[in-house]
Specification:
Blueprint lengths: L2 H4 L2 E2 L1 E4 L1 H5 L9 H14 L3 E5 L5 H13 L4 E7 L2 H11 L4 E9 L2 H8 L3 H18 L3 E6 L6 H13 L4 E3 L9 H14 L7 E5 L7 H10 L4 E4 L13 H10 L1 H4 L1 E2 L7 H12 L20 H9 L19 E3 L5 H10 L6 H17 L3 E2 H12 L7 E8 L6 E9 L2 E9 L2 H13 L4 E9 L8 E8 L5 E8 L2 H26 L3
Parallel strand pairs: 1-10, 2-3, 2-9, 3-4, 4-5, 5-6, 6-7, 7-8, 8-9
Antiparallel strand pairs: 11-12, 13-14, 14-15, 16-17, 17-18
Helix pairs in contact: 3-4, 3-13, 4-5, 5-7, 7-8, 8-9, 9-10, 10-11, 16-17, 18-19
The protein binds manganese (II) ion.
The site of manganese (II) ion has 5 residues, from loops.
Length: 518
């Protein structure tokens, strides 16, 4: 082994949860949620956050701009097609960032050039170079992506790479847009393109791998082995179709197999679980239990022989510790006699920064919970805080509910909600207690809402555990809104989840008015 091989490379983590991730079905986030997620990504040590596609909608523009202005250290990028209006808009959105980046792209495969762009290769080459130069006038930090690069002609792709680097691109990303590659191909691809376009070795080379064949992470690791120093990925692997390479899997593979890949990242791995949980809370989409690194069973040892081994020495069956990804024991922390100071200390030690006003609200919720539940765990507190911190304005609030239900009668619900200080009560019937309650809320709201998804699970174990209800509601415009509700009473949790989704719908509509979408 030569000396240069003993050095560890640095791999930048480019997170596109808010762009590639957010544009996938059921993953849309409102402005407040995007800012909360972006702050958590920054806390986790992500190098670059792609916070949206500024020209795609006024709402997207506003969220890219607000995220750019809210972060202190991260590079913030906006995606842009390789056209002047797209680049103008991207710059307008990111220019307030500590380190702004314009990320422009154009397709380079024959299939995309002919059928999508209707352009000849020479025109694409010319456009890529001209637009890189155009973006460079605004911003020093320019990323160029060759869309569908893995199905592009290598000699043509090399010409494009040489051209955009000469024009000022500081990062060149060669994505496997359709998730077709294999790890062996991905390695050869990056080795070959660096040989054909040597200027790529002077800038940051990047990969972006989709997971259509379940190979996204493996392909990104192969790319790193071939000299790639920026990886584009998402929390929980969300993204178009089967998703993107999962951030947590790449980071932990590099960490656990450090000797093998000889590369480090800036990620604070103990923040991984919180990032994963926050995203699930915001979108209402849970990860599968057997998901690597962040799944509920990722560190559960079920087989007796495994449990016996782990108890004697964790290394027998554990290649990484649960603590290393931020998974904590279910600690008994507080009870009904705990004061506000103790509560604040616990919240701070869990890593949350909340305002005094938010703390007061959260403490009230904690007291109510502690009255109902003997033992309040870290997970309960995290559930309260995480819910509060992404809370939208409460257009509607639950005042009271009475439900009459049984297996020999039709369920009826009387729901009283408060809107702007005024109580509104309606009664409705339904197939069951929850259906009846939702029908009554629909009457109060006065809109035709459709329940798309509903789920409930417990935050911790035990009979007095809190129920954590998740709903997805479709509004009259066809847009979907997720909502969550917490309570030791599952009916109340379900009602709160529905009200939360309705409030998000009102918030999104108000946001569209501000950004000029309607
Ligand atoms: Mn993508």
């Amino acid at each position: 082994m030569t000396d240069s091989k003993t050095e560890f490379a640095h791999v930048k983590i480019f997170d596109t949860t808010l762009r590639d991730g957010e544009q996938s079905p059921g993953m849309s986030m409102n402005l407040k949620e995007k800012i909360e997620m972006a702050k958590q990504l920054e806390r986790m040590g992500v190098d670059i956050i792609e916070s949206g596609f500024a020209i795609s909608s006024p709402g997207d523009f506003l969220s890219v701009k607000t995220v750019a202005e809210s972060l202190k250290n991260c590079t913030v990028a906006s995606l842009a097609r390789a056209t002047a209006p797209d680049i103008d808009r991207a710059w307008e959105a990111v220019k307030g960032a500590a380190d702004p980046r314009i990320h422009l792209f154009i397709a380079t495969s024959d299939l995309h050039m002919e059928h999508k762009l209707g352009m000849k290769p020479d025109q694409v080459l010319e456009q890529a170079i001209a637009m890189t130069k155009y973006a460079k006038k605004y911003c020093a930090n320019i990323e160029f992506s060759a869309e569908d690069s893995t199905r592009s002609d290598m000699d043509f792709l090399a010409k494009v790479c040489e051209g955009v680097v000469a024009a000022g691109a500081t990062t060149v990303n060669l994505p496997d847009t359709v998730g077709y590659s294999t790890p062996e191909e991905r390695y050869k691809f990056f080795m070959s393109i660096q040989e054909k376009a040597p200027s790529l070795t002077k800038i940051t080379l990047s990969c972006h791998d989709h997971n259509d064949l379940g190979l996204g992470v493996a392909n990104s690791l192969a790319a790193i082995r071939a000299g790639v120093r920026q990886v584009e990925c998402t929390v929980n692997g969300i993204g178009e179709r089967a998703g993107n390479a999962a951030l947590e899997e790449i980071v932990m593979a590099l960490k656990v197999r450090r000797g093998e890949y000889r590369a480090d990242t800036n990620i604070i791995t103990t923040e991984i679980m919180r990032s994963s949980n926050l995203l699930s809370r915001i979108t209402g989409v849970k990860v599968q239990p057997n998901k690597a690194v962040v799944g509920e069973n990722a560190f559960a040892h079920e087989a007796g022989i495994h449990q016996h081994g782990v108890l004697k020495n964790a290394l027998t069956y554990e290649i990484m510790t649960p603590e290393s990804v931020g998974l904590k024991e279910n600690n008994l922390v507080l009870g009904k006699h705990s004061g506000k100071h103790a509560f604040r200390d616990r919240v701070v030690s869990l890593g949350y920064e909340i305002s005094d006003a938010e703390l007061t609200v959260a403490f009230e919720k904690f007291k109510v919970l502690a009255d109902k539940k003997k033992r309040v765990y870290d997970k309960d507190i995290e559930a309260i805080i995480a819910k509060e911190s992404v809370q939208v304005p409460k257009t509607f609030m639950l005042e009271s509910f009475v439900i009459n239900s049984g297996n020999t009668i039709t369920a009826t619900a009387a729901i009283k909600l408060n809107r702007g200080g005024k109580s509104i009560e309606k009664v409705a019937r339904g197939d069951g207690p929850i259906g009846a309650a939702y029908a009554a809320i629909d009457k109060i709201v006065g809109k035709q809402l459709e329940l798309v998804d509903y789920g409930i699970e417990s935050v911790t174990e035990g009979e007095d555990a809190q129920g954590d209800a998740t709903v997805v509601v479709k509004g009259e415009s066809g847009a979907e809104y997720s909502g969550r509700g917490l309570s030791t009473d599952v009916i109340e949790a379900s009602i709160n989840a529905y009200i939360n989704a309705v409030n998000k719908m009102y918030y999104a509509e108000a946001e569209d008015v501000i950004s000029g979408e309607r």
